Amino acid sequence: MEKYTIVDVRTVAEFSGGNVAGSINIPLQEIVEKEAEIMALEQPVLFCCASGGRSGQATQYFKSKGLNCENGGGWMEVNHRMNS
């Protein structure tokens, strides 16, 4: 399995209720203002959220900026994928 930097775009409250070990929480509404920080992360970046909707938006946005990233979908699926 390729090594990813995992960015969870759920809210801080959702993230604190459970998350992928080692993931970074940057809520979707903050990704534009934190664009430089995200662009500087080790690539590839795997975005996740609750179901894949918000992470899909983040993935589309950052792919258009040239970031090597993909939509991991829901964080529980990502957690399972990383631990299997």
General description of the model:
The protein has 84 residues and is α/β, with parallel strands linked by helices. The protein has a single domain (5-82), classed as Rhodanese-like domain (Oxidized Rhodanese, domain 1, 3-Layer(aba) Sandwich). It has four helices and four strands, in the order βαβαβαβα. A four-stranded parallel β-sheet has the order 2-1-3-4. The longest helix has 12 residues, at 53-64. The relative contact order is 0.24.
**What is the average of the pLDDT values?**
96
* Second-tier CATH architecture: 3-Layer(aba) Sandwich
Instruction: Indicate the CATH class.
Output: Alpha Beta
- Spatial order of the strands forming the largest sheet: 2-1-3-4
Question: Which strand-content bin applies to the residues?
Answer: 15-25%
- The overall number of domains is 1
Order of helices and strands: EHEHEHEH
Distance from N terminus to C terminus (CA atoms, Å) equals 9 Å
The computed structural class is alpha/beta
Radius of gyration: 11 Å
Give the biggest beta sheet.
4 strands, parallel
Set down the secondary structure blueprint.
Layout: E1 5-8, H1 12-16, E2 24-25, H2 35-39, E3 45-49, H3 53-64, E4 69-74, H4 75-82
Parallel strand pairs: 1-2, 1-3, 3-4
Short description:
The protein is α/β, with parallel strands linked by helices and 84 residues long. It has 4 helices and 4 strands, in the order βαβαβαβα.
Task: Output the keywords.
84 residues, alpha/beta, Oxidized Rhodanese, domain 1, 4-stranded parallel β-sheet, 4 helices, 4 strands, 20% strand, globular
